[in-house]
Amino acid sequence: MSRRTGALARVVWLSRWPLLALAGMVVLGALTAPASAAARDYALCFGDESGDQSSGSGDTKEASIDKVAVEQRIAACTVIAEDATEASRLRIKAYFYRGSARDDKQDWDGAIADYGETIALDPKRTSAYFNRGTDWFNKEDYDRAIADFNVVISLEPSASDAYSSRGSAFLRKGKVDAAIIDFQQAIEADSQNGDAHTGLGAAWGNTGEREKAIAEYDKALRINPTDFIALVNRGLAYAAKGEFDLAIADYDAAVGIDPASADAHVNRSAAWIGKEDWVRAIADANKAIELDAGMVDGYYARGVAWASKNNDDRAVADFDKAIELDATDARAWFARSLMRARNGDTAGASADCRKAIALDPKKTGGCDTGPDVAEAAAANTDADPTRSSPDKALQASPTLDPSNPATWYIQQGLKDQQEGDVPGAVYLFSYAIKLDPDNVDAYFNRAFAEASQDHNYLAASDCRRAVELDPQRAGACAALMADHQSGQVAGTQDQAAAKTLVDRAGARLAKYGVDGALLDFDKAISLDPKNADAFLGRSRARTLKGEQAGAAEDCRRAIELDRTRLGSCEEQVADDDGRPVQVPDPGQTQAAAAASNPQTVRPNLMATDDTLAAKTMETKDRRALEAILGGDAWLDMGKYDKAIGAYDVVIVLEPDNRFGYFGRGKARAARGDYGQAIADFDRVIQLAPNFAAAYSRRGLAKVTSNDIEGALADCERAATLDPKARDAFYCKGMAWHGKGEAGRAIAAYSLAIGIDAKDDASYYARGMARADRKDYAGAIADFDQALKLDPGNADYAIARKAAVAAKGQSDEADAAAGADLQAVMPVLKRGDAFYAKRKYDRAIAEYSRAVALAPNEPLTYSARARARLQKGDYDGALADINQALEIDPSWITAYHARALILAKKREPEKAIADFNRAIEMKPDYAPFYFGRGSTWYSMGEYDRAAADLDWALELDPKSDMARQGRKLAKAAKEKAFRSNRPGKLASPAGKATPALKALTSADIDAEVQKQDLQIFKAIAEEFPDDYRAFIDKVMVVARSRSKEAVRNTSRVTVAELRKKYAPLLPSAPDSEASQALSAQIAMLNHLMARETPATCNNYLRNGPDAVIAPDHEFLMDMDRIGATLFRAFGAAKKSGLPAAEPGDQDWSLVADAFTKGGGTPTEMEAIANASQEFEGLCPAVVKLYAAALSLPGESGRRIKTAILYEIAKN
After folding, report:
1. Dihedral of CA 812/817/818/820: which sign?
2. d(CA 1010, CA 995)
3. Which residues on adjacent β-strands are paired with residue 984?
4. CATH fold match for the domains 386-568 and 817-983
5. What is the spatial distance between Cα 185 and Cα 191, in angstroms, rounded to a whole number?
């Protein structure tokens, strides 16, 4: 159901009993229910209110719904809801729960009717309006959905989910601006509302602002990495930008979350089409159609892939099916028109074209409408003839033969050019030339496409060929061919054109595939038959395509033209036995060829670049190239482990591929693994001794590893190899700075900046060096420039602030921040006022407004974290504290707060690290030592705990914290003394170090006994076999020397035993049940005496984790609770008493006792609803326990054991 049911999930074993035990048994039983409603109706209707029992949004998977249980629940709720004699409160709940059950079966109309009845009885029940609005949304009645969400917002102005839901409805209505406002309002109310970020991303996507859309999807996925909609939508945004690899990665993740999603498969199919991977595109389209036989996009995508594979019959069949399913889809008509034209069906092609244009006038000009349609007027063209439009190019050749297979590619090329994809158009024109080498239209159109890219040499060459084939093109081509007619000039220009083509071919090899690269290499060789790079590149491309003979021939020709190419392609020219073939060397006698040794490294002295072209030219295996590009993408995204995995694949496929080691070295360095990074760079340099970037990277890794002299040598070598390499001089600067020579470092950084004036890191580094020389003005100027280039970099901002402070100047940025803080102070004060009244939801709402007003002020996040912590929202509090520290890493309070949160989340090692940082910054503050000492205590590090707690007492002997700390320190010292038994050696730091002998069961048992915990004594006496099994488990884990693992094993084993024996409780004798229930009361009394009401309420919800700094008495109370439960289990096992459940009469007795003990209906209502906002919840629960304890006889035993069972089974 919606989160607005008020239900709370059970997580810990003793925390959430009131909701289940009382709402399920007391409140809905004899306390208020008349005899006309059977108890089983309450149980079936309201059930376990702590669970999330219905989707409320219609997204629940059918497989997850127990249809029989849903119908039973509806029937049970009907009995209560339609009984006019029933209490109004219960009828309201029954209608609401019946509505949520109908939501589960997607009976939107029935659910809407039930929520309407709920609202009629309780007009201010926001959850009913919210759920009804969601159901109107599911019915696509967006106006009514908006009306219900309006009511929710009017009743609860900070309802983030209502804003985001209304935003979704506005978006469906096409009111994008209104949707954006609502999504932003939702995020302001709750920055962790992932649905709001996803919705805002969709809204930005509708406006065409893809970068903003992607940024919002990123935020949504940080909140919930399994957000299916955000993944698919971000994939669509990436695909729209042409970033197909990133799109596919998102679709992969979406398919992993929901393998049965046809949408994810068809979108991934479209992305594979963008990458020209037709096989994978067809496979995904097949899967989409299998999952949804009516998916038009599936047939369309598969048709496009089949067409691209020249399987015209299958393509036409798929377009036929797409049209059959949706005759209004212009894409399918248009695609079939092109296919029919390619197959010579002129009449059919024209008919389909006319239909496509009728459905989508934007298709005009993209296909041939036939002679019965008037030609469109020629577009006006610019005075620059090199910018002639595609329409004009078409007019130069009035007829394109539909039967010619090249025609389709020319038409598609013109369409791509009109849409701005000129590189794609050039590729299509080139493919048309491959199909028809004498096609004048293909050369002519490619000429104008190349000219629009300022590739004038290529354009002139194509125009000359077009004029050769059709002299009538001379006039149109005159401007492009002007001054390029002489053989000498034309030859020079052809060489330049060939070089351009070779460079482009390298990129095409990755982007368009092997065929696109071969087209450019072919053209380059025709223009410049002596271009060794062109032959070498074509050799690589042919190798990837499997044309070994052609690859070898091209490689031999490359070596003939340039002897330095010999080491680049020996494998291509090897004979059948793997021996290099002799290549003629005019003017010199060749030495005898040696047999190839695969273990020998052949340094490639020509390998100096780190470009895409270099990667494609040097990589022989297509899979290796894909792995390189994939690793580069992961590296850019900061996902270093995945990057390393990709580069590992490269190294397996091609052990001598420098880019595999180079990429892996960069990823390892980024991860802080400098030793392995240096080893990878060593290998790169062995393979490519003149590769400057490898020396720069190795030098930087050596700087970080403190090998300053080695770093200097590497950086100098990099600068010698490439005097224009920015990173080489940056590397030198880092090395000189590490050596303590700031002046020489500044000089090196200055050279780096001279090479690349937009490198923010160089400015920052120079600023740091200048600050070391006390040139604070120069440092501030550098930090300003670094911040200008990277405004959000916290390191730069901190460095600038430090430089300003050292110089003694007033900082304008600080003044601006002060102004922001001044403006936000009234909002913070309102939040503080609500916080003081323990109205934490309203406090959080105010603090969220403060965050919106001053997003760069850490105080706002810290305040909200404090309120979220009181609510038990540890993850939300942690997110806020992390944000505060990102803004100001010197925010000492934030480190303390984060340490406390991490301790509560049972991440003690991380908590200790934050306490350490806080103590470094403020070494005389007692609470820091108290917090760290308490954490050491929880980890079993008693010596360290005692030392910290003693120091806390010395610093502040009069505080309440000192009183608690005194007891805890005493307990810690006793634990430390007992832990330093024979068999352990005390280290100089006082930390117990395990002896060398192997631990035995006796050792573990002795250690457990020394802890003197009653719970283990109870288990050993009542269930000796289970105790021995427990000792054996702990012994196995303890041998690993992992204290955390031992604690986890102990905790899990005890929990399993508790659940195992909980069903015995209904047979427990009254005396043992009374002792166990009294232990529960003692714990609540302890908390009420020492903690705030909010903390006590959080304890009822979250269990022991709610107590941030548990004292010794708290731990003893916890021990007593566990021990009395196991004593009750044991007594029940032996008693032979009947396992009777309490009846209505029993609950009537406890109700009377509760009232006599001072209990009120308001308190009972708070217990039933587990109301966290009710400050008196803990006292109310104690009254109820006391009432149960006061009942004598068998009725009292049944009540006590029933309550204990609900506690213990969780």
Report:
1. positive
2. 18
3. 994
4. yes
5. 10
Tell whether the model's pLDDT for residue 587 goes beyond 60.
Answer: no
Tell me how many helices (H) and strands (E) the chain has: 61, 2
- Pick the closest to residue 521 from 544, 552, 554, 490 (CA basis): 554
pLDDT score at 987 = 34
Per domain, the residue ranges of the chain are: 386-568, 604-670, 817-983, 1001-1208
Q: Which two tokens stand for residue 862?
A: 């810290």
Query: 3-state class of 606 per DSSP?
Result: coil
Asked if residue 47 lies in contact with residue 41, where contact means CB atoms within 8 angstroms, the answer is no
Report which of 827, 833, 902 is spatially closest to residue 859, judged by C-alpha positions.
827
pLDDT digits (tens, 9 = 90+) for 790-842: 766 767 877 788 788 777 654 444 455 544 556 677 788 888 888 777 788 88
Q: pLDDT-derived band of residue 399, with 50, 70 and 90 as boundaries?
A: very low
Closest CA to 1069 of 1017, 1143, 1144, 1139: 1139
**For 153-162, 511-520, 782-791, 826-835, which range has the lowest pLDDT when averaged over its residues?**
511-520
CA–CA dist 163, 683 (Å, integer): 57
CB-facing half-sphere around the CA of 463: CA atoms within 13 A: 28
Domain 817-983 belongs to what topology?
A: 1.25.40
> 295-309, 442-456, 528-542, 747-761: which range is least confident on average?
442-456
3-state SS record for 770-828: HHHCCCHHHHHHHHHHHHHHCCCCHHHHHHHHHHHHHHCCCCHHHHHHHHHHHHHHHHH
DSSP reduced 3-state for 994: strand
**673-695 pLDDT, tens per residue?**
888 999 999 999 988 888 889 99
Cβ–Cβ under 8 Å, residues 97 and 177: no
36 Cβ contact partners less than 8 Å away, ≥ 6 residues apart? 83, 85, 86
Task: Please report where in the chains the tokens 């990495």 appear, as a residue.
Answer: 225
Task: Tell me the CA distances in angstroms from 666 to 611, 634, 734, 759, one per residue in order.
Answer: 15, 12, 17, 18
Tokens for 20, please give them: 């289940």
The answer to whether the beta carbons of residues 986 and 1131 sit under 8 Å apart is: no
Q: Are 331 and 300 in contact (CB under 8 A)?
A: yes
Neighbours of 164 (CB within 10 A): 27
Note the CATH architecture for domain 386-568: Alpha Horseshoe (1.25)
Which residues lie across from 580 on neighbouring strands?
574
State yes or no: pLDDT of 402 exceeds 90: no
Q: Give the length of the chain.
A: 1210
Q: H or E segment at 984? A: strand 984-986
pLDDT in tens, 1044-1075: 677 777 888 888 888 888 888 888 998 999 99
For residue 969 the two structure tokens come to 């320190």
Is residue 415 scored above 90 in pLDDT?
no
Q: Which two tokens stand for residue 700?
A: 């930087």
Tokens standing for residue 732? 């030198």
State how beta strands 984-986 and 992-994 pair. Answer: antiparallel
Phi, psi (deg, nearest 5) at residue 66: -85, 100
Whether residue 558 has pLDDT greater than 90: no
Residue 529 corresponds to which tokens in the numbers above? Answer: 């038959």
